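Weekly sync, protein design subgroup
Attendees: M.S., D.O., the rotation student, P.L. (late)

Item 1: inverse folding check
M.S. brought a backbone from last month's batch and wanted to see whether the design step gives back something sensible before we order anything. D.O. pointed out we never logged the input encoding, so this time it goes straight into the notes. Structure tokens as presented (133 positions):
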């Protein structure tokens, strides 16, 4: 029995079913490449749009820049640094959200939110652990 839908690995899997598995992405990429081969004016349009964006944002990199990513991935040290920065960003976002929840709770109880520092979530966690019987 095959539990996996048969449309995986087709461009319809990517477009109709919005699947982003490797097979569907590959199928979509090759279908899109074939489309651009049939319609060179569309490829030219996309190229011009990308160039205009780069001119308007000279100091920015695309959120997804395949060439840049592959270059970084090819170097194991850079790949590790890349992963580390990414993890650190995720953690910082979570930490900030936890601090904001503490601050919101303090304000809710009419207390000063001044104590809601980065340590606040951990102080609360350990206080709650001690309360348990
Ligand atoms: Zn798929």
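Designed sequence read out in the meeting:
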């Amino acid at each position: 029995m095959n539990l996996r839908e048969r449309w995986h690995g087709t461009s319809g899997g990517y477009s109709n079913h919005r699947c982003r598995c490797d097979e569907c992405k590959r199928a979509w990429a090759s279908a899109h490449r074939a489309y651009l081969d049939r319609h060179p004016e569309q490829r030219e349009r996309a190229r011009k749009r990308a160039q205009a964006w780069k001119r308007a944002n000279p100091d920015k990199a695309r959120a997804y820049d395949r060439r840049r990513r592959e270059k970084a991935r090819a170097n194991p040290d850079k790949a590790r640094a890349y992963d580390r920065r990414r993890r650190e960003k995720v953690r910082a976002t979570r930490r900030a959200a936890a601090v904001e929840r503490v601050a919101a709770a303090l304000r809710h109880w009419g207390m000063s939110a001044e104590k809601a520092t980065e340590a606040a979530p951990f102080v609360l966690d350990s206080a709650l652990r001690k309360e348990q019987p």
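Discussion: The chain has six helices and no strands. The radius of gyration is 24 Å.
Action: P.L. to compare against the previous round before Friday.
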